[in-house]
Design a protein that fits this description.
By secondary structure, the chain is of the alpha+beta class. Helices cover about 25% and strands about 20% of the residues. It has three domains: about 80 residues, OB fold (Dihydrolipoamide Acetyltransferase, E2P) (Beta Barrel); about 50 residues, Irregular (Dihydrolipoamide Transferase), CATH 4.10.320; about 220 residues, Chloramphenicol acetyltransferase-like domain (Chloramphenicol Acetyltransferase). It binds oxidized coenzyme A.
């Protein structure tokens, strides 16, 4: 046997009439007990009126914009047999008796009741007030309804108990806010299309759809990676111009350099090495190098000094895992060397530099840099470095800030050595000083270590005998 049940407006506190701002169901819907049917709104808050029984919604007595007062019939539900008795089980006897009384009244006027006829108390206002217990969310003052206790029937909740500062939160019904919480959506970012800018369930769903379909968002402002789009400029307005496509190497290396520059916190440590003695030795070994078909430049000594420094400071010979949590230490000593070519910069890698002598390294450098300029390097020859050296010593300059060749943790910039007066404690002495600029990844390397590393490097060059140790 089916049982027609009226769903009425519960106790709404001090208010005579409040508007229905949302109708959440339609006639013919199969509804569940406690399912919200309509949302009412006072000046200060909103509340939903849920069904007190499961069944088919056979009649909807209100529409959006109607004004309703306590006891007014909202809808009629054809409930299945026994549903209500089950719901009443475990509740106090008084509540059950009230319920039976109310049921009798309902069956009497369920045929002809109209919204106008409903000026009576709702069925068991306290136990069946139809006000759903909101889910606890301490950050949401809409949910701070005093008096709720688990396991007990909800007390009537007058609107003013749900008081809050409505201006501080987006305008939305409890069910929409609940759905937003479940979906992890901040309603402050959702535009409301309802009355007074109310966010409806449809607004929320279309917001989620829009976000899901949008292309990957640019990094948030403040993360340090948000970059304003460059304005498109017509340079021909200012004079004659000519367009030239970037070389393939520049088109490939550009994004990598950009990524490394913006994603690695770079610091550059400057120092200088006194290479006066080293220069004497280098020149004296030149004939030997020429005999081997190569030439001995300061760079070869720098490669050896870098190997010694990597051995002394093993955490420089490492890479950071992509998640930034793990240091991957390397037991090999491969050194990259930046080579300037007509098509752009490339960085071939000299392998196992710890196992090679100066002449052998010089030969390898000549071979790699020659093939780099001819565009004949293989991809693999530019991979696997531990630390790179960028030498501008053959060109000039006093210092510069090289960009780390990720996934390496540091890069050594070398500028042109210059004869300088150096105070030896009693007089100035002419010394050949080579500027060193070490850029390092500050996520892994501390400034003090970088200073020690660079000083150590300089000391190797200042006294080549150390390289033998
Ligand atoms: N101080 C003084 N003189 C130096 C020097 C230094 N730091 N480094 C090199 N020189 C001298 C050499 O001894 C050589 O002189 P001699 O001909 O009288 O012997 C001359 O400068 C030219 O050297 P080089 O450039 O031919 O040889 P190299 O081994 O120093 O460098 C290579 C080889 C391939 C690294 C270099 O040719 C090159 O391409 N450098 C550019 C790297 C670059 O573009 N870096 C910037 C990258 S952005 O971070």
């Amino acid at each position: 046997m089916s049982d027609k049940r009226e769903i009425r407006v519960p106790d709404i506190g001090d208010f005579d009439k409040v508007p229905v701002i949302e109708v959440l169901v339609a006639e013919g819907d199969e509804i569940e007990a406690e399912q919200s049917l309509v949302t009412l709104e006072s000046d200060k808050a909103t509340m939903e009126v849920p069904a007190s029984a499961a069944g088919k919604l056979v009649e909807l007595r209100v529409k959006e914009g109607d004004e309703v007062g306590e006891g007014d019939v909202i809808a009629i539900v054809e409930a299945a047999d026994g549903g209500e008795e089950e719901k009443e089980e475990g509740r106090g006897k008084g509540a059950s008796e009230d319920k039976d009384d109310a049921k009798d009244e309902q069956s009497d006027d369920s045929e002809d009741s109209t919204p106008e006829s409903g000026n009576r108390k709702p069925e068991t206002a306290s136990s069946e007030s139809g006000i759903r217990k909101p889910e606890a969310d301490p950050s949401d003052p809409h949910q701070s309804v005093p008096g709720w206790e688990d396991g007990l029937p909800p007390p009537p909740v007058p609107f003013d108990e749900m008081d809050h500062d409505p201006g501080s939160l987006p305008h939305a019904s409890p069910s929409v806010r609940k759905l937003a919480r479940e979906l992890g959506v901040d309603l402050k970012g959702v535009e409301g299309s309802g009355r007074k800018g109310r966010i409806t369930e449809e607004d929320l769903k279309s917001h989620v759809k829009q976000v899901m379909e949008a292309p990957p968002a640019a990094p948030a402002a403040g993360s340090g990676l948000a970059v304003a789009e460059a304005p498109k400029i017509d340079f021909s307005k200012y004079g004659e111009i000519e367009e030239e496509k970037l070389s393939r190497i520049k088109r490939i290396s550009g994004p990598n350099l950009h990524r490394n520059w913006v994603s690695i916190p770079h610091v550059t440590q400057f120092d200088q090495a006194d290479i006066t003695e080293m220069e004497v030795f280098r020149k004296s070994s030149q004939r030997q190098a020429e005999a081997a078909g190569t030439k001995m430049t300061p760079l070869v000594f720098l490669i050896k000094a870098v190997v010694a420094a990597l051995k002394e400071f093993p955490h420089f010979n490492a890479s950071l895992s992509n998640d930034g949590q793990t240091l991957i230490r390397k037991k090999y000593f491969h050194v990259g060397v930046a080579v300037d070519t007509p098509n752009g910069l490339v960085v071939p890698v000299l392998r196992d530099c710890d196992q090679k002598g100066l002449i052998e390294l010089a030969k390898e450098l000549t071979d790699l840099s020659g093939r780099a300029r001819e565009g004949k390097l293989k991809g693999d020859e530019m991979k696997g470095g531990c630390l790179s050296i960028s030498s501008l010593g053959g060109i000039g300059g006093t210092a510069f800030t090289p960009i780390i060749n990720a996934p390496e943790l540091a890069i050594l910039g070398v500028s042109r050595a210059e004869m300088k007066p150096v105070w030896d404690g009693s007089a100035f002495q002419p010394r050949l000083m080579m500027p060193l600029s070490l850029s390092y990844d500050h996520r892994v390397i501390d400034g003090a270590d970088a200073a020690r590393f660079t000083r150590f490097l300089a000391e190797q060059l200042e006294d080549l005998r150390r390289l033998l140790l």
